Amino acid sequence: MVFRTALTEALGIAIPVVQGGMQWVGYAELASAVSNAGGLGILTALTQPTPEDLRKEINRCRKMTTKPFAVNITLLPSLVPPDYGAYAQVVIDEGIKIVETAGNSPGPIIKQLKTAGIKILHKCTTIRHALSAEKLGVDFLSIDGFECAGHVGETDITNFVLLRRAMQSLKTPFIASGGFADGEGLAGALALGACGINMGTRFMCTVEAPIHNNIKQAIVDASEDQTELLLRRWRNTSRLYKNKVAVAAKKIELESTTGKFEEIAPYVSGKRGRQVFITGDVDEGVWTAGPVMGLIHDIPTCEVLLKRIEKEAEDSINRISSLIVPSKSKL
């Protein structure tokens, strides 16, 4: 059997699973492997230092897959913001059909992309933001529960409630993000009204993920309580792997009498985080991971993982369906 949802139908994919756009992880190696396996692979635009580098990465990915893949453009607070419009223009020029957007004030970028006929999958951590994105005409919403890695928002609403609120309030089809690693999770998300799932941490722990194997093994060895929430003091809360750097940064955040970001900045440097994935030293810097680590026990290929998820979801749905039996006739 195959799954047919609004997501698979619109995007031309076989399995309703999206690989999240991850900084320093969303390269062609992983995106192409996910797409080849039947899901939707995503290149992370800002992992590339310039728009022209993104163009090269898109072309590199095309040499690795003939299946649909997307590009992630995340708009985040920055003293010197990237030229988001230029990145979006490269996406348009290269004929990309699907873009995942996220972050602050995405309206201009979404308008630029929609004008070119690109399908937009926009990430939200609240129903309020999702309703605003609907008004911008996005095609799909990615509803991110508090369980997600990276930017979790400031409301701390978990997926069990957030997805049901999405079903009650939204007209736009949505996928579920945060805490998903297997087919049982996919079946649960479908039951709660989603048309697919987004996975980040789970895809980090695959053969094709372009990060050091030590990091993959650290994810396998970790439990669900090995994450740390940082930057809440500055309303930019991020969920990170709980290593020595994250613990030291959290102590500064809680105890600082000045509240100056400069005190914590060296600990949360993106450059240090990137080195983690290159050197394999889990304590080199901060890096994102979710509590879903507690559900991850191996490092499969993307093909093995997605086939397993598809089978697990089917088995789970059939098991639940078997609980429904004819009612006994009353005498």
From TrEMBL:
GO terms for molecular function: dioxygenase activity; nitronate monooxygenase activity. Keywords: Dioxygenase, Flavoprotein, FMN, Oxidoreductase. SUPFAM superfamilies: Inosine monophosphate dehydrogenase (IMPDH). It holds the Pfam family NMO. The keyword Disulfide bond does not apply. This is 2-nitropropane dioxygenase-like protein. It comes from Morchella conica CCBAS932. The lineage of its organism: Eukaryota, Fungi, Dikarya, Ascomycota, Pezizomycotina.
